[in-house]
Every structure is written in C-alpha cells, then in structure tokens.
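Our consortium's second objective concerns turning raw sequence data into structural hypotheses that experimental partners can test. To show how far this objective has progressed, the report includes one record in full. It was chosen at random from the queue rather than selected for favorable results. The single chain below, 154 residues long, was entered without modification.
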Amino acid sequence: MPELSYWVAWGGSLFILALVFLGPAKNLPERRPWDQQLLRPLFLPHFIFAGYMGLSSVFHFLYSKGYVYFTPVGDPAPQEYFLQLAEAQQLYVLAHAALVHGIMLASRYRAPKFSLEFKSYSGGALVLAFLAIGLTALFHAVPGLDQFAVKPTT
C-alpha cells in the first residue's frame, strides 16, 4: 500500500504546518501581531520548505496516478514507482520535522536591544527609498563601488 504510505506522510507535513502556524508548537512573542511576524525563521523558510518541497509533490503523485486537473487522462505508473514516491515523501516529512525542530530549538524570543518604529509603513518605505538614493549616489562617487550602483538604478 504505497499510496496509503504516501498520504500518511503528506498528511504529516500538513500536521506539522498546522502545529507551527496555529501556535501550539511554540508561541510567538506577544508584542507584535501575527501578520507582522511572517518573516521570522519559524514562518518563512518553513513555509517555503513545507509548501514547495513537501506539499507540492501531491501534484506529481496525482499525475503519476493518471490524473491531470483531477481528470483521468491516462494509465497510472507502475507500482514500483509509487514505492519510490512514498519513500521520498517519508523523507520529506522527516526533513520537515527536523527543520522545524531545529528552528524551534534555536529561536529565542527576547526583547530587542533597539527597534526602529514608524508610524506607518509608507513612512518607513519613504525613509528607505531616500536611504537607497543616498547610497546609490555614494556608490557612484567612490570609484570601486560603482559596480554596486548599477542594480539599484536600473
């Protein structure tokens, strides 16, 4: 039953994703709302790894079963191929669990030594834009740094 093994491992990745995003695995600091913490290591790399590597394999699995857009279009692959797919998904869920475990062990939520607060996101973006313009002008002025000024201005 390699198909069942695949679906159990795939569901394991969904379970880990739910544990992390819903908070029972490790609570986020209370000083910021949830939507402002999406770039923390517990979210962004985890979401990229789980979403791209672990969960998107279901499309290849369904294609191997003979489905495209949930419509049967052909014959399924040989049973040996599904054994390999199930094993690969088991390794994905193991790596996913190891990644989350490592991030949670290394995460230390403590008060920052300094913080830069803006009244609005547009104000912060405006300050960053002016800083970028100033850095670009500085890069153009210094002969060796001119190579760094090409990308920001194009």
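The partners drew two points from this record. The chain has six helices and two strands. Residues 9 and 89 are 6 Å apart (CA to CA). Both points have been shared with the crystallography group to help prioritize constructs.
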